[in-house]
Design brief:
It holds the Pfam family HTH_20. It comes from Agromyces seonyuensis. The chain has a domain of 73 residues: Arc Repressor Mutant, subunit A, CATH 1.10.10. The chain is an alpha+beta fold. A three-stranded antiparallel β-sheet has the order 1-3-2. It contains six helices and three strands, in the order ααβααββαα. The longest helix is centred in the last third of the chain and has 30 residues. The protein is 68% helix and 12% strand.
Length: 114
């Protein structure tokens, strides 16, 4: 995943309202009006938050008759999770190397103690 993609996802998820919208959409599709009824936010604010989530690739609009509903997309979250796992594994590798270096005797110490 490109860094701008990660930045967009984290920026979108960094807002509490957008996080709650995404959780609500994880339970099933909903319109902006339905989401506004569930959350203490106006429909207009919900629409703006949905636009940010859509831009980040976290939700998509679905037309059902005359109603526009939104659904959560797990693929972008999956890519984000894999990237975080990759970063975590790299840090674990680096920390293990630092630990090995810290616990190994220095080159001169072993011969000077004899």
């Amino acid at each position: 995943m490109s860094e701008p993609g990660l930045v967009a996802v984290f920026a979108a998820l960094g807002d509490d309202t957008r996080w709650r919208i995404l959780i609500a959409l994880g339970e099933g599709e909903a319109s902006a009006s339905a989401l506004a009824g569930r959350l203490p936010v106006t429909r207009q604010a919900i629409a703006k938050h949905l636009a940010v989530l859509e831009e980040a690739g976290l939700v998509e609009p679905v037309r059902v008759g005359r109603e526009l509903r939104y659904r959560a997309l797990g693929s972008e979250l999956g890519r984000t999770a894999r990237e975080l796992d990759r970063i975590g594994a790299e840090w674990e590798r680096r920390l293990a190397l630092i630990k090995r270096l810290a616990e190994s005797p220095a080159d001169g110490e072993a011969s000077s103690s004899a």
